[in-house]
What does this fold into?
Amino acid sequence: MSKPNYSGTFHLVEQENMDAYLEALDINFALRKIVCLLKPSKEIVHDPDTGAMKIRTLTTFRNFNMDFMIGEEFTEDLGPVDGRTCQTTVSWEGDKLICVQRGEKEGRGWTHWLEDDKLHLEMRVQGIVAKQLFKKAD
It folds into this structure.
């Protein structure tokens, strides 16, 4: 069975527990408050045949780019997020994309999955879980 194509532009519609997640990443209070007010968009370019994926998280404050091959470990620069680097692997678990980020923070990673025109994102670090829900642009 073929994997879903994640390509598209998605806009945030709701989020939960972001402040606690950012605090677990040692983000200072003022920056946490700014980030929690942002309404990010995600631009995803995905080639299901090769496994190449580019995820751009765009906000009015700061942007974050992630380019990778599904199933291959790479060094991820999380400088724009929390100043760290980690060894990251994104792989398939059924139709979900599971990211494991090995570094200073235990249990760090995320899961993406599609449901109709919605893109779900669950972010984890040190037992804290934050969730974001995005809707695909028309």
User: Anything to note?
Assistant: The longest helix spans residues 29-37.
